[in-house]
């Protein structure tokens, strides 16, 4: 739901911190103050109260903003107000400014998200007037990019295979007048994308490489997203409990498409390239096998010690391609390892980079836009763990230690350009303000905010 235009009928919404609640209430008319006291409004985080006028119509609405300590434990608090307030048009009248106001506005838009492709669309409730003092068009663009990511991840694999992911990429390219090229099926072999073809060849749905280009001037940014539309684990088949969420294994692709929407929508002055290896890791007579040795686009050989570590294989070929036109920055995003979830849980986006400058820019930006990230190390002493001896690289080192780091080190072998890798989850396990359970973007808003500093825009 976009912002709405201001009208005389808009209901003033006051955001009230717990510490300032008593003082705020003294500024209200007697009837409104008494009503708030009778309803027990204290400014506690998440409290919502509609104050009626003498005719019983809404005079104003109050939203409790709690204490700074309480707010620090979550984010997107205004999403609670958007969900709880009765139907109507609201205008934030007091209590927020600067970054807090931007976050509140975005939270309101994201709180309206419902994945209703397979059921009757939900009736939209409260709407918000575009707050004064923010770039409303930018916030709407960011929300649209996030909603694109959520919709792609939430769509089951029956309706989101490589072909459907291609269609989504084509729709995005068309929207922003970008160029797109797709290499499909057996054409991947003469085009020298052997590992993308190998991982996807067992599926009835052909593997492909999606390649979007936009912009004609400025530094080049290349985004690479893991597009494994469903992952059975291959011949190292996953147990049922681990396969249940594998529709989200294309979360990296969904996130870079959402990020690309944001970048093009706000018009960043750069040249953008988006590469997505789109495959389904299935089981058939021609599926690749444990102990196979594959030769990558870069020429490095890879021993397959687990067919369920397929994401790094398709990314490797795409990363090699990304490097071939010398971009100023390459960023990959992938739902790559369970080890990353063990390390930081589902809410943080771990990232790897050799650049302290890029790491600092990302961490600062993440704090500003409420999109938390955490730097992980490209730890050189672990390089030996991905060198099996029989081939150049091992796709699944034994031992179980440092799985996210060894996966990142594997990917780094295929990139010479400045490189950042995100090992994201792409899923909200339990509902939170403005983030219903299900697919979710991670890291994209932090990257968008950091790009001007990282690329000197």
TrEMBL record:
<dbReference type="GO" id="GO:0005737">
    <property type="term" value="C:cytoplasm"/>
</dbReference>
<keyword id="KW-0378">Hydrolase</keyword>
<keyword id="KW-0645">Protease</keyword>
<dbReference type="GO" id="GO:0006508">
    <property type="term" value="P:proteolysis"/>
</dbReference>
<dbReference type="InterPro" id="IPR048816">
    <property type="entry name" value="Peptidase_M17_N_1"/>
</dbReference>
<dbReference type="InterPro" id="IPR043472">
    <property type="entry name" value="Macro_dom-like"/>
</dbReference>
<keyword id="KW-0031">Aminopeptidase</keyword>
<dbReference type="Pfam" id="PF21337">
    <property type="entry name" value="Peptidase_M17_N_1"/>
</dbReference>
<dbReference type="InterPro" id="IPR011356">
    <property type="entry name" value="Leucine_aapep/pepB"/>
</dbReference>
<dbReference type="InterPro" id="IPR000819">
    <property type="entry name" value="Peptidase_M17_C"/>
</dbReference>
<keyword id="KW-0464">Manganese</keyword>
<dbReference type="GO" id="GO:0070006">
    <property type="term" value="F:metalloaminopeptidase activity"/>
</dbReference>
<dbReference type="Pfam" id="PF00883">
    <property type="entry name" value="Peptidase_M17"/>
</dbReference>
<protein>
    <submittedName>
        <fullName>Leucyl aminopeptidase</fullName>
    </submittedName>
</protein>
<dbReference type="GO" id="GO:0030145">
    <property type="term" value="F:manganese ion binding"/>
</dbReference>
<comment type="similarity">
    <text>Belongs to the peptidase M17 family.</text>
</comment>
<feature type="domain" description="Cytosol aminopeptidase">
    <location>
        <begin position="306"/>
        <end position="313"/>
    </location>
</feature>
